[in-house]
Amino acid sequence: MDLSLQDQQEVEIKLEKVDSIVEPGRFRTIVNRDRFFLTNGIMPIILTGDKKNWTAREIKFSKYFYFNSAFPINDTTFVLQAYNTEKKGLQLGLLVLADSPKFKFNDNLLTPQQEGIFSVQGQTDYNNETNTLTYLYTYRNQYLVIDNDLNLKGTGNTIDTFRTAPITVREVDNDGTSMLSSPPFATNPCSTLSGDFLYVRSNLLAKNENKGKFLISSTIDVYNINTKEYVLSFHIPNLTNKSITEFKIIDDKIYALFDDTVGLFELKALKDLQSKSISKK
Q1: pLDDT value for 167
Q2: Does the pLDDT of residue 280 top 70, yes or no?
Q3: Which residues, in sequence order, are bridge partners of residue 236?
Q4: 75 and 135 in one domain?
Q5: Boundary residue ending a domain (78, 105, 132)
Q6: Per-residue pLDDT band at 278 (split at 50, 70, 90)
Q7: How far apart are CA 29 and CA 178, in angstroms?
Q8: How crowded is residue 212: how many other Cβ atoms within 10 Å of its Cβ?
Q9: Residues 81, 114: one domain?
């Protein structure tokens, strides 16, 4: 789609030299400037291609290295969330795909609470202009600000009250395999990073928030990642009776995904934030 959502084109992504597919629902497509990436941590595989012909070729790395998520920060470097056998939990690491691919965990970023898998799940967002990463925990009110080398620049808290992930885990096998014993409540289901601001969809009703508006829209809380301060909140109305599952900010517009529907929104407060972010650089 073009940025006005008026012009739409369907493309078919071709996988080159891929003999078989494992769990196709695990594939995630990420577009980064002129290239696109396909990732599947169960196979595990990372493919990349040019938007001119939409043919995906495999990027070679260890086939025994499974990952939970992979996020490209450029054409050859990925932030991976994978299981660290030494720490017995999910951690973030850098995968650099040069002549000889290298991967290294940073064990000091994600802080486990009850255990090292569910309590540290979250979302990575990246700003190409500032070379800054954020990692937002899904089940608690904290986010991390990280540089390109996975060094921690600082932490911040959202205005929600869950400092401890509200999850219950039980062991289901003698080998230590565990699972969630109750459906988890996602405090922060999705986010996006634009300029100096982290936009977080909140699942919690604030004390001074209109309950009626909360039920028919998605609440977005905005944080300045430099000062770690809460800035403001606004609502994105539901479409087709569904709340947003993912959103991005391009210039002064919000592009939101509602399951299988895309919506475009404009907000005066967003223009003000963008101008503040640009004037500071």
Answers
A1: 62
A2: no
A3: 218
A4: no
A5: 105
A6: very low
A7: 29
A8: 8
A9: no
Among 40, 73, 105, give the residue marking a domain's end: 105
Helices (H), the chain: 211-215, 268-279
pLDDT attached to residue 250: 87
| Of the listed ranges 43-57, 74-88, 156-170, the one predicted with least confidence | 156-170
What pLDDT is attached to residue 145? 97
119 shares its domain with 47: no
Pairing of strands 197-202, 28-32: unpaired
Residue 1 to residue 193: CA distance in whole angstroms: 21
**Percentage of the chain surpassing pLDDT 90?**
50
Residue predicted with more confidence, 184 or 15: 15
| pTM: predicted TM-score of the whole model, two decimal places | 0.87
Could you tell me how far CA 137 lies from the centroid of its own chain? 10
Quote the domain boundaries for residue 174: 109-281
DSSP state of 166: -
The total number of structural domains in the chain stands at: 2
The answer on 238 and 119 residing in a single domain is yes
Checking if the pLDDT of 276 tops 90, the result is no
In this predicted structure, the answer to whether residue 62 has a pLDDT above a threshold of 60 is yes
124 shares its domain with 88 = no
- In 190-262, alpha helices (H): 211-215
Strands, E assignment, 158-258: 169-171, 178-180, 190-194, 197-202, 217-224, 229-237, 246-250, 253-258
> Are residue 116 and residue 85 in the same domain, yes or no?
no
Neighbours of 65 (CB within 10 A): 15
Please choose, from the candidates 232, 216, 212, 236, the residue with its C-alpha nearest in 3D space to the C-alpha of residue 224: 232
Instruction: Tell me the CA distances in angstroms from 244 to 27, 64, 221, 257, one per residue in order.
Output: 20, 35, 14, 6
> Edge-to-edge, what's the strand order for the sheet holding 132-137?
122-127, 132-137, 142-147, 152-157
